[in-house]
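Troubleshooting: if your tokenizer reports a length mismatch, compare your output against this known-good record of 191 residues.
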Amino acid sequence: AQDEERFAREAQLLAELPDIRRLLEHHLRPDVEPSPAVHSVYGSRLLELLSIDRRWTETQVPAIFCDAPAPLGEAAWRGFVHAHKAHRTFLELLRAWYEKALATAEPAAEHPSDYERDLSTHMIDLYAAEVIDLSNTTLLGRFFARSSPARRRAILHSIGFRLQNTDEPLEPGLAERLERHSARTGGTALH
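Known-good structure output:
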């Protein structure tokens, strides 16, 4: 009975998709909806939008993460970074925003904002998944190069804490990669 209800709801949603798409597109227009809060919701719900209609969502990324007016795109980006874990698909879809965010972040700050901690976590997750590495040509490498020693230690500590508090097995080679980087940057051991 529950499966039948779920299938009925999904069938209704699929039938209504053209109307839903038009409504969402309407509210993405800055002249209609100038509120950064609305764009923040689009960013924080990017995964749901992708799972409902990937092709449509991919075509709407420029409108969701728009550059003009700047506060709308920034709100969508911050909503996304706060609500989602990093993933290869997101990096491929939003590489320009990752680049922009890391170029404007203040990694040398001794007390990073919640947003900068979330952004650091994205970089750590992409590194742990072997999507990016720590060379100076990658996103994380450039971020580390601009970071203060205290910030580097904090990020490495965060990685160690997350690894210590997980029941999931480590990716093959992850501990060794982190240990090598910890030694190079003067961080503490991760075990």
